From TrEMBL:
Family annotation (InterPro entries): Carb_kinase_PfkB-like (IPR052700), Carboh/pur_kinase_PfkB_CS (IPR002173), PfkB_dom (IPR011611), Ribo/fructo_kinase (IPR002139), Ribokinase-like (IPR029056)
Any one GO molecular function term: kinase activity
Assigned protein family: Belongs to the carbohydrate kinase PfkB family.
Organism: Rariglobus hedericola
Entry keyword annotation includes Repressor: no
Annotated protein name in UniProt: Adenosine kinase
Domain Carbohydrate kinase PfkB, residue spans: 42-319
Keyword entries, A-Z: Kinase, Transferase
Lineage: Bacteria, Pseudomonadati, Verrucomicrobiota, Opitutia, Opitutales
Amino acid sequence: MPASAHSFELIGVGSPIMDLLAQIPDTFLTTLTGAKGGMVLVDAQEMEAIVTRLENHPATVAGGSAGNTAVSAARLGIRTTFLGKLGNDATARAYKENFAHAGGDVSRFKYADLANARCVSLITPDAARTMRTCLGAAMTLAAGEISPADFHGCRHAHIEGYLLFNRDLANAVITAARAAGCTISIDLASFEVVNAARDWILAQLHHGIDIVFANEDEIHALFPAVGQDYPALAKRLAEFGGLAAVKIGKDGAWIAKGTELHRILPVPAPTVIDTTGAGDAWAAGFLYGYLRGWTPLASGALGSRLGSECVRHLGPAIPAAQWPAIHAEAAKLSG
């Protein structure tokens, strides 16, 4: 089916989470279990306990890994929708309104009569983020609710790795997306995800995934024997037949496809405020180019531009004032 025949070029799949952003000293992390820089699921009681201990009231912004990518993709001009479960509260309504305001379609959200998902993102002075997530309504999305109809008319499905904590749901999502004829990308999301679901990821790679996004920690967790040779890690991931995008933060990225290997240069950020959502923004820029038929180098260049812009601001959302310049750069890259 040609791209013009699809109602949507991109469907994001994941948990529609509202982020609570808090800048903290490193000592605050000593009061938590789990490693710095990772994501741990918590219940509502533990979430409130963490928020209560914060010195300042956290900023609130729509988030979620696939949600961040979908919002930036919509801002770029991609026809975008989203599959995930919202709650029934003011937080859920604000999330839905934000997605629509970005230009996204809200017709494929599902709903539960529960509190919406929230994530407290703890940002240390080095701009690293450590996340604690209470999934709320999003956690009730069940495999039995997913069917190929959810993906009908969609060209490409972008799936966040956090879904892999629910193996049955992940299986239902990827099976339905394939049945609907979507190409598929997965963002591995966190080293905790890879550690918990490495066998599932490898099995799906053998089955066929069009694009896999991974950062340094995630690719190391997937292929621990390869070491820290990022070109080799990218080529190892690409051996499964898809496109491998290995993001290495301020040092750019490596993209591998078949025998091709591309070095993606970084776009330096004058000041790094917060790395929350930077990888999601990178994926949005790359997917825009990929869905427009650009070269991997051009797609990666736009990814680097969005990732660089994201870290200059608090939270995963790129401010509205920055988008005209991004659109102008995308137009240049398309040539």
